[in-house]
Amino acid sequence: MPRELALGNGRLLINFDAEFNMRDLYYPYVGWPNHIGGEKNRLGCWVDGHFSWLGSPDWERQVGFEADTLVGYCRARHRGLELEININNAVHFQEDIYLARVTVHNLASRSREVRLFFYHDFTLNESPLGDTVTYLPDQKVLLHYKRGLYLLINGRAGANIFFQYATGNKRFRGAEGTWRDAEDGWLEGHPIHHGSVDSTFSFRLQLAAGERGEITYWIVAAENFTAAGELNNWVLSQGVKNLLAATAAYWRGWVYKNGRDFTDLPPAVVDLYHRSLLVIRTQIDNRGAILAATDSDILAEARDHYGYCWPRDGALVASALDQAGYSELTASFFYYCSRVLEQDGFFYQKYNPDGSLGSSWLPPVHRGERILPIQEDETALVLWALGQSFRLGRNWGLIHDLFPALVRPAADFLVDYRDPDLGLPLPSYDLWEERRGIFAFTSAAVYAGLLAAADMARLAGDVGREDRYRRAAVEVGEGISEHFYSPDLGRFIRGIYREDNGRLVPDFTLDASLTALALLEAVPLADPRLARTMAAVAEGLQVKTETGGLARYTGDYYFRKSDNLQVAPGNPWFICTLWLAEWYTLRAQNLNDLAAASSILTWAAERATPAGMLPEQLHPFTGEPLSVSPLTWSHAAFVSAVEKYLARRRQLLAGKGAP
Q1: What is the DSSP letter of 66?
Q2: Which residues form the Glycosyl hydrolase 94 supersandwich domain (predicted)?
């Protein structure tokens, strides 16, 4: 089930699904480790001898965010139980604390006792071995702990502490877990368990007819027990209500810190722009890693996840953030990149949030020969994004620190890792991580990355390298024009493959990544060959259903839902569709020309989840989210498309025809 709430502060990240089940808890890194792993930490209710979990279909639920904040809400009503529950929740913006404020409304015409149950299914450090959960009678809290990780759980029902607790084993020797103990409304209270463990807290409210009662609840994450206890005392002294209000105020200030005149964009687009900035922030670790996604349900498909930092995704997210004015976040990413860059000046496929090498499926052997298992566009796009970051923010520290540590080794690699006959990059894996060859997207990225490196070399006073990088970029640009254009098709092609005998085999597959030729300025916008290419992409990859949108490429197999390629050449992807919006923006010569881009922005806003999440892709017929949700790159593509739209509109209003 897609994630509908992402609540975080750069160290602690907690995800909820649309049924308000807590599904992921990451600490101390965003994206690692996951101490829930997709299981369901949930809330249940007992009244009049009947029990119901909040995820039950008997509840009418709305799950979302308070406007322009990272404070979530759940509004739930159970007609049979005559109860209404309203919840506000958040991760504190500064401290590693999850906070929830629960209001219970007795809709019945009689007084009743209502009990709420909070179930905790933690698997600390992603292993069920050696966990401990215990009740601490002095502090009157529950504590889950293992090897430098402490999750302390506490709460209040009005002025009263919890009613009952239970600890137990789960998924071992037939033990289902303490959630089963809760369903009779009574917890047995065993004070400690170890191994594969879980726990449940309950709170009791006595409510008159029509009366409301309040429960506050919190989880403290810490690396030692002393720190956990201090944070628990801090919550008790400050109050959950006040901490939630402070968190809401902080995020409203953050999301509006730069201010934007959104001119003619509709409110739904503006709302999604702000939501996208906030979602992106939750997926960034304070030490610099930008995570692709933290929705662990993808584990059911591949036994791996998206909780890694792909340098490509990170670079494109950083580009969007720099355009939006959040350079304090992107600087940390570029320093992270300088730490993980390989000695020879390239990036491998992906990295863990702590900077260690991530898992990979890219073979290091091709036709019996050892090769570099890389996607060269990742190295190039980091340089391009870094150059853009400096141009927008003029942060001289980036040049001073990162030219020797990142720019010089990476750009030297890009220059050297080229085919001497073609001027183009040597073969590497494509951005979709599916095939190895020489691709238009990769080449456009290398072209843009080398030009950015040349500019930074000039600023760093390295005239020799400036000339070397610029000449190499020109050669890549010439290679793009010569080898990726098909006169027969009248457009650019996806790529070429070199056979053992040296013969070049073209790949004519229509691919949305050809948009990079325009967006990275590898081909002049006025070039009619580019216009014909983009027209082919817009028409040939359009999903011809009510869902609409643009597929990645003709015949895309990833999560394919239809073999009718005439109707659905692939599932619609947000990033691909939003690339098209950027193309329409770049080519606009008057305000009316911007309508095509605006319509795509509206399309994206209409297809976000109710809470404003953008998945990787959509089902072409039902429009439901597919793969992970949210995908950080999807939200970044939306932010970038909005920023490009606003910038171009300002240019046109100022009477400037060419972008």
Answers
A1: -
A2: 68-231
